[in-house]
Amino acid sequence: MKVHVPTSVDEVLGLLGEGVLVAGCTGIYPHLGPTESIISLRKAGLGGVSVDGDRVTVGATTTLTELAREVPFLRESIASIASPTIRNMGTVGGNLFAPQPHGDLAVCLLALDAQIEKAGDQLVTSISFNVPERWFYTKAMRRKQNSASIVTVASDGERIALGGVAREPVRALAAEAKLAAGDIDGAAEAALEAADPFDDAYASAWYRRRVLPVHVRRALTNAV
Ligand SMILES: Cc1cc2nc3c(=O)[nH]c(=O)nc-3n(C[C@H](O)[C@H](O)[C@H](O)COP(=O)(O)OP(=O)(O)OC[C@H]3O[C@@H](n4cnc5c(N)ncnc54)[C@H](O)[C@@H]3O)c2cc1C
What we know:
Layout: E1 3-4, H1 9-15, E2 20-22, E3 38-40, E4 49-52, E5 55-59, H2 64-70, H3 75-79, H4 84-89, H5 92-95, H6 104-111, E6 115-119, E7 123-130, E8 136-140, E9 151-155, E10 160-163, E11 170-171, H7 173-180, H8 184-190, H9 205-220
Parallel strand pairs: 1-3, 2-3
Antiparallel strand pairs: 4-5, 5-7, 6-7, 8-9, 9-10, 10-11
Helix pairs in contact: 7-8, 8-9
The chain binds flavin-adenine dinucleotide.
């Protein structure tokens, strides 16, 4: 296995095609072959969080732990992800690529209408979003740690994003329309329109569909 450790974005771009991009390596590790070359982003200068007024810009290789430390409204949401060990290594950029029912931060970023900066076609360099006035989040899972989502709900009080109930994080647009009219019960039921759930070891598609309205209602009635 060859390990490239580029020290700038330009160097990363020059190496694309020479190996698999890795950041914290928590998600990709089981999929790497024994002789696969990797391009580590660890020293590419893509870490760190900057806050300018309400605008937060997060470098792609910022770890989940660092983000929770720097951005208080996301602390509880990030605490629902994996375990401290994984959060210390797993990065914000990497979480965008975590297949469902993982990718809870990606669900939050969708609800925040986050903007993603890229270099070249495939390198995510940073993600930015505004701190919302209100934040709603809930994640139904089997255990407190290292348990993927059954249903994840994130909302800024206007946008509603769901995890665990489709192959990708989804916006619940019909639910958002009900919420805008002040109808939380209607929003909870309408969220089903965005769901296309699947069976896995954590829950059946039937169960995910059954409990989705419960968790949407619960999330929207309890601001974090
Ligand atoms: C035991 C366990 C439990 C978990 N539980 C949860 C959970 O409850 N909720 C949850 O949300 N997640 C969970 N995860 C997933 C974890 O959060 C992700 O694996 C992690 O966020 C990925 O980040 P990483 O830096 O380790 O990515 P890596 O594993 O290094 O990379 C993952 C993928 O992203 C790509 N990538 C990484 N960074 C970039 C970039 N900057 N630009 C372009 N492509 C990039 C890589 O090429 C790769 O394809 C769990 C993982 C484990 C191992």
